[in-house]
Design goal:
By secondary structure, the chain is mostly beta strands. The protein contains no helices and 11 strands.
């Protein structure tokens, strides 16, 4: 059974940083996709970053390029999202997600598996 446990959210002021973590348990395949999507009240789900484990191909939403970085610790089955220069518009619930092949890092908002979510609140 695939399970994702995400954590690391919190409340910060604009310009601050947070690092989200997601631990994957269960077998999803030898290569797969993982990433993060977010959902703010009254807004559509939005994929922010994704990675394909075979080659570490990555995707970033235009709104977070240059500010955030997705990475993974293969040995720990853990995915990270380093969020720098946070803005109030980044406020949302953030979810870790995963998908077996075939998958695309850009399609993270559609992945089959997701965590319980972690809240990120950025104040101005």
């Amino acid at each position: 059974q695939v399970q994702l446990v995400d954590s690391g959210g919190g409340s910060v002021q604009a310009g601050g940083s947070l690092r989200l973590s997601c631990v994957l348990s269960g077998y999803i395949g030898s290569n797969y996709c993982m990433g993060w999507f977010r959902q703010a009240p009254e807004k559509e789900r939005e994929g922010v970053a994704g990675i394909y484990t075979d080659g570490d191909y990555t995707y970033y939403h235009d709104s977070i390029k240059g500010r955030w970085a997705i990475s993974r610790d293969k040995a720990k089955n853990t995915l990270y999202l380093q969020m720098n220069s946070l803005k109030p518009e980044d406020t949302a619930m953030y979810y870790c997600a995963a998908s077996g092949r075939p998958c695309s890092p850009a399609a993270v908002r559609l992945y089959r598996y997701s965590g319980q979510g972690t809240q990120v609140t950025v104040s101005s």
